[in-house]
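Support reply, case 0932

Customer input (verbatim):
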Amino acid sequence: MKPVYIHSIASISAQHTVDESVFLDQVESYEDNVLQAIDPEYKNFIPRTAARRMSKGVKMGIVASKLALSRAGVEVPDAIITGTGLGCLKDSEKFVSAIIDNKEQFLTPTSFIQSTHNTVGGQIALELQCKGYNFTYVQASVSFESALLDAELQLKTDEASNILVGGIDELGDHTTELFKVAKLIKSEKVSSEALLESKTKGVVYGEGANFFLLCNEKSENCYSELIDTAIFNTLEKEELTSELQEFLKNNQLSVDEIDAIICGYNGDVQFDDYYELLTDGVFAQTQQVYYKHLSGEYHSSSAFGFWLANKILKTQTLPKAVKLNQVKDSGFEFILLYNQYMGENHSFTLLRKC
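Our regenerated output:
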C-alpha cells in the first residue's frame, strides 16, 4: 500500500495560527471558561455578500480549506472529508428558536438547511466546484480521526491521490449555556496557564477549524507521514497502556522510539487521569505536550493537536507554551497523539518526520 503524507496545514483557533510563518510565537492568554476563535480577514477569502449569510463555522472552514489548498498548490482535491461534533450550531439554534417563536408555523428553511453537519463540506465543494467524494463524520470526539482514517484508507489503496481533511466546530450561545448548566463547562473562569491546576469538573470550551491536504506522493514540502490511526469507543483504564503498546508494536515501534507524546489534557479532574496513566507511566521519560489550554476543548479539537504535531515535525521546535515536562529533546522523528473525552472515544495517531 502507498504511504500517506501531509502536504499542507491550516488552522483557525483561539491563537494566532493563521499565519504559517509563525509558530505560537505570540500566545494569547485567557482567563475564561469559553474561548472564541480569532477571526481572520474573511473578506480576503469570501465575498462580503456571501459571508453575511454564513455562520462562523462555515466561514472558518472555507478559509482554512482554501489556505491548506493554496499552500499545497492544489486547486481542486480529489475528495473532501470533514469531521464535526455538533455542526453549525448557531443555525441550529436559530431554527429551533424560530419553531418556538412562530409556534411551528411560517418557517423559512434557510437556517435548517445551513444547520446540517455536512454544511461546511458542501460549501467548500461549491466554492471549489469539487464534484468528488464528499463525506462528513459526526462521531463525537473522534469525528476528526474518523475523517482522517477514511482518507488514510483511500490514499493507501490509491483510490485518490490527494484529499482535503478537516475538523470544524463552532460555539453556539444557547448550547454553551446548556453545557454550563450540565457542568460540562467549568463554572469558574480559569487562566490558560493554570488549566491543569484547576482540579475541578468540566472543561474550558472552544471552537476552531483545522484543515490538511493529504497525498500519497511525497514532496520536499511535506510536513509529515501519517503512519497509522486507531479509534476505540470504550477503553478501560487498565487496558490503555497495553492497547497503546499493541498499537506501536503493529507499526514496528516501541515506546522508547517515540520522541514526543501529545495528550488532550483539558483540565477535567474526572478524566485527565487517563493521560496521567501514560505520562506518569511508560512515557515518564518522553517529551510530553498538551494544547487544549490554548485551543479549548471541543469535539474536533484533536485536529488542533494534529496541526501542532505537524508544526513540531516540520520546524523541529517545541514552543514553551505546550511543554508539559522538561525532558530534553534531541529532535523529533516520531510523534504520538492520544485523545479521549469523558473517558470515551479514545484515539491514537502516529506521525513520522518526512
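We compared this against your earlier run and they match. Two observations from our side: The chain has a mean pLDDT of 95. The chain is about 30% helix and 20% strand. Please reopen the case if you see a mismatch on your end.
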